[in-house]
Amino acid sequence: MPSPPRPTAHTTPSSVASPARGPQGPISPLTGLPGAAGRILAVKIDNIVTARPQTGVNSADVVYAIEVEGGLSRFLAIYDSNHLPQGDAIGPVRSARESDLPILQQYGKVDFVYSGALSKFLPVLADANVFNCSPDQDGSFFRGTSNAPPSNLYTTPSDILRDFPGSAPAQDVGFRFGDAPDGGDPTDSYTATMPSASFTFTWSAEQGKYLVAMDGTPADTTDEGPIGAATIVIQKVAETTSPRGFMDSPGVPSPYAPTIGSGDAVFLRDGKAYQGSWSRTDAGSGTTFTYQGGAMRFHPGQVWIVLDPQ
């Protein structure tokens, strides 16, 4: 499998103690797994066909799949500094979008890595509650050799965390972990679609997670094998166009996925689908995921959230 050149590894910044604790010590609020919470790094990752296979996706704590122009999709991946990719590379990195900022607000002021943005969006990014970590602000990027530009820009996460040391530690954004709830429908495979993209999640009992196929093709990485996650959330959102009137091209408004409000959701874990809902009252709050009147419990491990346009 081709891979981007690997930069020299650096020491991961020191962790910050997590407020969540289990019988054996601290528990990550983002994965439900043992371990102290580190600082948060968010990376916008390309997902068009020519950007695949990606690097570092399987190391993310949370992966959001979001519609962008042309009905395609991109990832917003959330990383805890205590478990970065072993190869110290993430990508391909692509541009920020308006939908990203409300998602990130629930994580606190994080290091946000992206390649650029619409010129009219740049002032909004500059004023946002994030550390802007694009090539305009930092040199912690390199070009890979496997893909053609623009899908060959990668970041070195340890360098970003060193250069922007003030990012917030991992905190509670609404996830609850534990044993599977009663009920649910046995579901071996589930597909979520966007106008020009699809994600199929197939349960693998052997691996204990859902393997991901994108546009009908099994998804892979350059560094950690097939893409898969223990919990999948299909968060149905009232897709609209840019509240600020941004255009991807003349006469073509940018799509916007609102994550403040409420809606239906489908939760996939342990080979079952659970029909539930989500709600979020304001930008500073986390998201509540509900099943049968109570909190939906996720399986510990990586969480995928597909913002399914309705």
Fraction in helix:
under 10%
CATH fourth-tier homologous superfamily: YerB-like
Rounded radius of gyration (Å): 18 Å
Number of helices: 3
Return the average pLDDT rounded to an integer.
93
* Class per helix and strand makeup: mainly beta
> Ends: how far apart?
36 Å
Strand content: 35-45%
Q: Which fold name fills CATH's third level, the topology? A: YerB-like fold
Biggest sheet overview? 12 strands, mixed
Q: Any idea what the shape is?
A: globular
From the coordinates shown, what is the CATH architecture?
Answer: 3-Layer(bba) Sandwich
CATH domain class name: Alpha Beta
- Low-confidence stretches are 7-19
Furnish the topology, listing elements before pairings.
Elements: E1 21-22, E2 25-26, E3 40-45, E4 62-67, E5 73-80, H1 100-105, E6 111-113, H2 122-127, E7 131-132, E8 141-143, E9 153-155, H3 157-163, E10 176-177, E11 185-186, E12 189-194, E13 197-204, E14 209-214, E15 217-218, E16 228-229, E17 231-237, E18 240-241, E19 247-249, E20 252-253, E21 255-256, E22 261-269, E23 272-280, E24 288-291, E25 294-295, E26 297-298, E27 303-309
Parallel strand pairs: 3-6, 4-27, 6-7, 10-26, 17-27
Antiparallel strand pairs: 1-2, 3-5, 4-5, 8-9, 11-23, 12-13, 13-14, 14-15, 14-16, 17-22, 18-21, 19-20, 22-23, 23-24, 24-25
